[in-house]
Amino acid sequence: MQPQYYYTVMTINPETQDFLSPDILFTFALDAEAADVFNHCNTLITGIGKVNAAYELTKAIGEKRPALIVNLGSAGSNVFSKGEVVCCTRFVQRDMDVRGLGYARYETPLSGMPIVLEYGLKMDKLAAGICGTGDSFEMGHEPTIYDVVDMEAYALAMIAMKENIPFLCLKYISDGADDQAAEDWNVQVHRAAKAFEHMLQLKRQDIPV
User: Which of 84, 87, 139, 143 is the most interior residue, by most CB within 10 Å?
Assistant: First the structure.
């Protein structure tokens, strides 16, 4: 009898290819965002912030190149509701500000990169968001070009794009990016992993050797 390997299969949309769990790299900033839901998957805990995210993902790609990078994590928003999962395919470096030298707000000087980086797979059943990434926990978000706030996704998306690796970014809205953000985040962040598990509907499939 032929032996079997047991892989988890993830389908993003019916018309997209399926990905097997050994080929997917699931990235989280914190263990709390993954909980024990993704123990059977290939996970990377980057730590908080753009520098940590960029370093850890670059190192992971060098060790084993994935077929798909999936960034899952909590985020703030005063547009989407708490507990909602949003798919981000556009990203802004919200703390890049070199207007003093004549550049536009959020523009990275001399990089050739657009202000809004567009890269990533869409999930048809989810609302689409524009993620503003920066090294600050935003608690007074005002209307701007982004409607989701996090601290890692821009760096991850940019590296995935430069490496030509498919990228999926899902954010669980944990707070309103307002004066209650810290309190709300502490309560909601632990619910993120369960929301992602339900949304991704990971299925086990037996695959012969």
Answer: 87
Write the CA distances from 92 to 6, 104, 108, 196, integer angstroms.
38, 12, 10, 23
pTM, rounded to two decimals: 0.86
**The two three-digit tokens of residue 13, written as one number:** 């949309």
84 neighbors 96 (Cβ within 8 angstroms)? no
Strand partners, 128: 87
- In the chain, where the domains are located: 4-208
Write the burial class of residue 73 (CB in 10 Å: 0-12 exposed, 13-18 middle, 19+ buried). buried
Structural contact between residues 46 and 28, judged by C-beta atoms closer than 8 angstroms:
yes
* CA nearest to 89, candidates 113, 117, 115: 117
Domain 4-208 CATH assignment equals 3.40.50.1580: yes
Which 3 state secondary structure label does DSSP give 149? strand
69 membership: H or E segment, kind and range? strand 68-76
Q: Please tell me what DSSP assigns to residue 36.
A: T
Give the 3-state secondary structure of residue 124: coil
Q: What is the pLDDT along the chain (209 residues), one digit of tens a residue?
A: 444 445 666 777 776 667 766 789 999 998 888 888 888 788 999 999 999 999 999 999 999 999 999 999 989 898 998 889 999 999 999 999 999 999 999 999 999 999 999 999 998 889 999 999 999 877 676 768 999 999 999 999 999 999 999 999 999 998 765 556 555 555 666 678 888 888 887 655 555 54
